[in-house]
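user: Please supply your own:

assistant:
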Amino acid sequence: MLGVRVAVITESFLPHVDGVTNTVCRVLEHLRDRGHEAMVVAPAPAPAARRTAPRAHAGAPVLWAPSAPMPGYPAFRFAVPWPALPAALREFDPDIVHLAAPAGLGAQAVFAARRLDVPSIAVYQTDIAAFAARYGLATAERTIWRWLATVHRLAARTLAPSWDSVDALLRQGVQRVARWSRGVDLERFDPGHRDEDLRRRLAPNGELLVGYVGRLAREKRVDLLGAVADLPGTRLVVVGDGPSRPTLARALPDAAFLGFRSGRELSAAVASLDVFVHTGVHETFCQAAQEAKASGVPVVAPAAGGLLDVVEHGRTGLHYAPGDPAALRTQVAALVGDPGRRAALALAARDSVAGCGWTAVGDELLGHYRDVLGTGGGHGGRGGHAAHGEHAAHGGRHGAHRGHGARGGPDGRDGTPGRPGPGGWAARHPRVGSGGGTRVGSGAAAGPPATGAAGREADRRDDRRSI
């Protein structure tokens, strides 16, 4: 199987760790394992962090774009305009551009990709509009959404991690949307990593451990943890770091703050909890909650955003009214006081992620690449709408298959857009069908092959490319 060249443009990358970074790392590892080539372009880290910044990950070289600190959250950097990006992409010569949570850098990349006649896939992962509102930019929320919608409409396809995210994008006029969930490392996150020594240190009197794992930042609503800090017979455990940690530590003097954990330490910390609590209401997915489920820990989370997919109320955890501290306390207390129910939810939580490993989810992503490179997706307006607006994926929401979360297991191909019919230019040229592919729209909307230098370059890449 010949490889493809994938330029991964991400708004966040190592050494900064968040959901976007973690997903990008997994994508790069899967591309390497499947024999494909990748490069990464990301905002440069802060000067103090540059000595720990990687030059490559999973064999993919990292190119750092100039950046500036985000006001109010200097540890997070955003890319500033970078005129050299088109030349960097041209030199790498990608077959497809993967835009991870595109905003500033992703917007530059999608325009550059169009000029180079390279299709792009945008992965919607961060509710940037809500994020900005939490940092004092609420008046800009509508403007931010307009900008994001423009970026996503320029991509050949947008992949959203949850049905709530699909809905949000459709409301903003982004039509070529499919649901692509997130995987979980089923070996790293497993009930077998429960650490009794750690539990004795954290709960010397045999208390139950109620824990939060994630970034400690304003948009995560970590202030709500105070609602469960003094539940009788429990101890609150906080795993993670971020700008809100000093304030939170002062407000919760009896909680155990473990700081940033990774690898085996993170696995043990998650598996050693009795109840996992999440407080953020703007999650497009919530990987931490899925990792808790894989560790056999029931989840209490707000009935909002991606958590509606990740947590099935009454089966793998409990929902509470978003932003309501009393409701959060009630649901956690219900599990603390009912060991039988807690155990049943823990078993169901682990069972629900049995088919959600990163290998299956990574192969699903390659299926989207195949669609866009072949006949399943238009090149951001150049080839028309893909599969009649592509929210056939959204229609599947109300059918028998929901993918991750309520039903468990990856989406397979049910949640992807419909395939074009047998007509059209691509059908008359089988070498550019689903195995090889050319950059045209879907079905009858597909146009003739490119001519001249662009056509020769496309033909050369077609000969090289197979997924």
About this structure: The chain has 16 helices and 16 strands. Confidence is low (pLDDT under 50) at residues 375-466. The CA atoms of residues 120 and 295 lie 35 Å apart.
